[in-house]
Amino acid sequence: MDIGLNHYLVVGLLVFLAGLFTVLTRRNAIGVLMGVELVLNSANINYIAFSRFGSGGYEGQIFSIFVIMLAAAEAAIGLAIVLGIYRKFKTIDVEEVDSLRG
Amino acid sequence: MTNPVLVDYLRWIVIAPLCGAAINGLAGAWLQKRFGKHAVTAVALVPIAISFVLALTAFRQLLGLEPEHRFLLDQVSKWIHIGHLKVDMAFWSDPLSSMMTLVITGIGGLIHLYSVGYMSEEPSYWRYFTYLNLFTAAMLTLVLGDSLLTLFVGWEGVGLCSYALIGFWHKEWANASAGSKAFIVNRVGDFGFVLGMFGLFWALDETGQGTLVFRELAERVHLLNGQTIAGMAAATFITLMMFVGATGKSAQIPLYVWLPDAMAGPTPVSALIHAATMVTAGVYMICRLNFLFDMAPTTLHVVAAVGTLTAFFAATIGVAQWDIKKVLAYSTVSQLGFMFLAMGVGAYTTGVFHLFTHAFFKACLFLGSGSVIHALHHEQDMRNMGGLKKYMPITFWTFLLATLALCGIPPFAGFFSKDEILWKAFSSPLGSPVLWAIGTLTAGFTAFYMFRQVFLVFYGDYRGGHAAHGHDAAHAHDAGHGHHGDPHESPSLMTIPLVLLALGSVLVGFLNVPGALGGHHLFDQWLAPVIVKAQVEHGAAAGPGAAAGHGVEAALERGEKDLERGAEALAHDAETFEHGVEHDPWEYILMGVSVSVALGGILLAWLMYRRKSIDPSTFSEAWGGGPYRAVYNKYWVDELYDATVVRGTLALSRLLSTFDRVVVDGLVNGAGWLVRQISVFEGAFDRVVVDGLVNLVGSTSLALGNRARELQTGHIYSYLYAIVIGVVVVMFARLL
């Protein structure tokens, strides 16, 4: 069978869902960040797919490099925040960090 | 009546003592402390002197006028002008008023002088003279007033001052209550007076001629013919009511009970008020309104009957009394009864003449008794006196002369006046031999008890021990005195008035010597312009025909004719003054009888109390001692009044007070209770409903807020979850 656009999109969707699931359900803060990476990567897959099969052009691929860069920056900051949380709460379990509870 | 002579000095006769009272009343205590009693005396005596001089001036001015024109008027100011009622503040002087004014200021002045000596030890000296001056002013208003209303102002004023002076030593309960008794009993009489005034004005006003001014009344009184009030002839009703007032003021049955108790006051007060002036106000009033009384023969009969009965009644009580002043008090009531007897038989001027002579000898007697009381340090019981003739000669001789005058022994004043009354009682068409007989019997009693008094007080041995001390009405003042042993004559300030009054008692009788004895009835002539000829018209007695029985009607018609004959008789007498016409032999016979009866009374008193040949107990034990006990206890009239009127009034007031407390207060308290209950309910409503609603709003917001708060979990994942859901909703909303 030929691997067409749809296949890439479905993969992208699956990765997105996995990432979403991970964000919503992980107790470990770093696990949440991993989930965020997955979501971002799914977006990347989408861009690439459309760049290869879609109307063409290389904007998709270029954009995808930006996204990777962004993801890296964001991961760095996210880890810095997790470090801060750890210092304060002595734990990185998100269920424990509920000081803003009303 | 012709037009009066207008003057402007009569008002000062009244105003001067009023000023004296005002000054002494407001500043007397200070004056007395700063300058001593002499200052107070001066302030009190000068106005009386002024009034006396002015009274003499008025008298002389009247003498200079023709008899029909003897009439001075002093219009002071407008007073009441309402509808038809026009009464001004005005004083008038006609023969009657000027005579009364001279008596009040003259004898009153002597009594003021006497009081200076009698009350010299009194700390409330200034208060005494304030009231005395105030009384004089009120009495002068009474006799000088030109209308019934002004007379009434004075009438009430003397009642008030009588109360104040009787209860002068008010710290003793007995004195204060005697004052109250006098005032209250007077008030009952005043009620009658007021009703009479109302009736008079109202009846006259039926014809649009309402007035209360005397000179106008004299002209308009005939308008009362045919009018009725309360089912009887207007004139009869009015005069009966006015007579009720007179019984109160002049101590006749049934309102005489205050006079004996009034002896609680200082003796000069008894002399002035209860002998010479206030009690004579009733007699004055009837004489003033003679034209009105002439229209009501029924009332005149009542007046004569009451007067005679009172005279006899009081005389019987007087024979059993031991207090020197009480004897004189009952004697006053008795003599006033004689005056009313005279008025009741139409002999107005004779009654007034007796008033005149009585003022002299009764004042002298009271002042004399005061002299005795003062000398014996407020001893008033005659059983503790005796033999004072040698210790107090002036007092004795004046007292004796006054007593002879009172008993009607010629040629003293009382003979001419009392005898004239008895003669008129017998001969007047309105009189009857019965009245004469009772009057003569009373005169006998009078002579008896008066000489009983003279013998007990002045003859025999002095029975007062050194332990004699003040009795009933006196206030304790012996502290600074000490007992002087034998009694002695009073100071000249007290004896000079005695002498002058005794002189009067001897001489003034000659002012009215009857024609039968060769005289010219000068006094009666002087007063003649005051007596308006009877204006009885046919039909005056026809008014009350419906209510009156046949017998009464016939009597009234007879009365009418009697009046006409009486008026003719008076006029006849007036004509015969100068002509020396033969007089009715009965007059001489009756004269002789009355003198003999008086002498008989004196003889009996002499036998019982001087010679001691008749034992008084033969009378006091007679018929089981019953009659004696009755008169000694004053016929228990005071007890009767107490049991009926006094207790009745107190019971009524208790009843009304209970009603006030239970019903009226109950309603008020009930209203308060109701308001309280309503407020409780309202409070509950306020708490439960209103506050509840407010709280409900609050709690609802709280509840909502609490639910809303649950969104803030503090967990990141739940927020992310919400975002995801939101994005999905937005995406699919676009598709829908």
Task: Write structural notes for this entry.
The complex is a heterodimer of chains A (102) and B (736). In chain A, 75% of the residues lie in helices and 0% in strands. Chain A has 102 residues and is mainly alpha-helical. Chain A has a domain at 27-89. Chain B has 27 helices and 5 strands. In chain B, helix 19 packs parallel to helix 23. A 3-stranded mixed β-sheet of chain B has the order 1-2-3. Chain B has a two-stranded antiparallel sheet with strand order 4-5. The radius of gyration of chain B is 37 Å and the shape is elongated. With 736 residues, chain B is mainly alpha-helical. The chains are: A mainly alpha (102), B mainly alpha (736). At the A-B interface, helix 1 of A face helix 27 of B.
| Strand percent estimate of chain A | under 5%
- Summing up helix and strand content along with how strands pair, one would put the structural category of chain B as mainly alpha
Gyration radius of chain B (Cα, Å) is: 37 Å
Helix content range of chain B: 55-70%
Helix-strand topology string of chain A: HHH
Total strands of chain A: the figure is 0
- Most extensive interface: pair and counts? A-B, 13 and 13 residues
Give a quick account of the main beta sheet of chain B: strands, pairing sense, barrel closure: 3 strands, mixed
Label the structural class of chain A.
mainly alpha
Q: What number of structural domains do the residues of chain B give?
A: 3
Note the total helix count of chain B: 27
- Rg value of chain A: 17 Å
Q: Beta fraction of the residues of chain B?
A: under 5%
What is the straight-line distance between the termini of chain A? 55 Å
- Tally of helical runs of chain A: 3
Percentage of residues assigned to helices of chain A: over 70%
Key phrases:
heterodimer, A: 102 residues, mainly alpha, B: 736 residues, 3 domains, two-stranded antiparallel ribbon, 27 helices, 5 strands, 69% helix
